[in-house]
Amino acid sequence: MYWLIVAAAHVERLVRTARERERRQLRLEAQLADARLEALRAQLQPHFLFNALNTISVLMHENVDSAERILLQLSALLRRSLDSSEAHEVALGEEIGFLESYLEIERARFGGRLSYEVLVPDEALGARVPTLILQPLVENALRHGIAMRAGPGRVEVKARRHGDTLLLSVSDDGQGLSQASGERVGLANTRARLRLLYADRQRFGLRNSDDGGVIAEIELPGDVPNDHPRADRR
Fold this sequence. Notes:
- By secondary structure, the protein is of the alpha+beta class.
- It has one domain: Histidine kinase-like ATPase, C-terminal domain (Heat Shock Protein 90), CATH 3.30.565.
- Helices cover 52% and strands 19% of the residues.
- The protein contains five helices and seven strands, in the order ααβαββαββαββ.
- The chain has helices spanning 2-60, 64-83, 92-110, 135-146, 188-198; strands at 89-91, 114-119, 128-130, 153-162, 165-172, 203-208, 214-221.
- The longest helix has 59 residues, at 2-60.
- The radius of gyration is 23 Å and the shape is elongated.
- The model is unreliable at 224-234 (pLDDT under 50).
């Protein structure tokens, strides 16, 4: 009986130690994932800011009033970005507001060559999405789709719910993907962020549209588990 009690106590200590080690490992993994997400998002902001300032610089020589209007929009964008600087996720409605301001800046740069449409139903506006997840997709559509066209081009941003899944897409009517070009550059950051945030519960892909151009598609889960890193949804 004595040895049974000793053995039971020893097993209990081993189990307790193993659980504590597992908890420490999970905390370390969460901190590492958090650090990687911060680094990935930090890469987006300077690149976007450089493009916007370059647009304003060009407009200063062509249309000072337009340059001033775009500068005000950039100021609003930066203020919104700073307001959510600690959040890895925001409401889709907030992300769309940011994106529309960005598109207005880009429309000024392209002049009459760029038109866009954002189609998001009201019931999807409260869904949580990664911060700045759509802007790189739109930037790629502009750079590799619209900018390559001799005439005007169009970008469409769509979102909808399908059961417990949120579907996001950005499409353009450019020249499409060729076998030689492969996937467009600049999207590795997006893939990495999605993997860190949602593991295998997400999907991201590019494909040629039947009507020409390219469609970038993202599938996200409808919710994020409470034990996920930074899942406080601030």
